[in-house]
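Checklist before submission:
- one chain only
- standard amino acids only
- sequence pasted in full

Submission:
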Amino acid sequence: MTTSPELQALKQEVIRLRGYWHRFHDGLLAWCPSFLRAYLAFQSAPWRSGHLEPKVREFIYIAVDGAVTHLYTSGLRRHMDDALRLGATREEVLQVVLLTASAAAQATHEVGFAILAEECPEVARRPLRPEMARLKQAYVEATGSWPEGGDALLSVSPDFAEGFLAYRQTAMTAGPLSPKIRELILMAVNAAPTLLNREGVRRHMRLALGHGAAPEEIGETLQLASAIAVHVCTYAVPALMDAVADAGKAG
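Returned file contents:
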């Protein structure tokens, strides 16, 4: 690996702004420093703009790293450590985890039952049984929203409905996070490259705005959610380094 002053300065800048140095940074520093600079600018922009409280940025990272669609455990632990260092409580971090679990679980049914209602219009026309209507009202009162396809789920799968709705309701009320922060976290999970649930993003963005989020806070949340795309390099660059080294030995 080269040790030119320019590249050493870039390495120190990565450590200063990101707080750590990873093996994939070594590979990019040696083979494509221009991409490493672009990565640094991409990852650091939300921190320079500073629209969200630092611990809230860590909450977003915890959510997108910990979502079942990603499960990047080393990043999850690092951002939990950072959140606690920045003053987050155990209860706040746990609520982030519960919201993340509920977001991914609900996405399957929000998308799927909405499609079912489109493909089977008679499902959409069925009146809700009184007990299902009561469940819907309680959910709306607790969360401020109703998932697309929710009526179809209540109609087709009433035995599942209580558990489905309680999963989100409990996560929403199981900790001290404000409504705005809860909605930003849920929006981030839905907007992450590993999920991309458009209607989920729209719904939670609308709710976050209704709870006082500024457009700049929305934008910063989306920037943070997109950051997990670099994990392609986290895994692939070291793999390439090993492959090149093994090919050299074989040659």
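Reviewer check: The mean pLDDT is 94.
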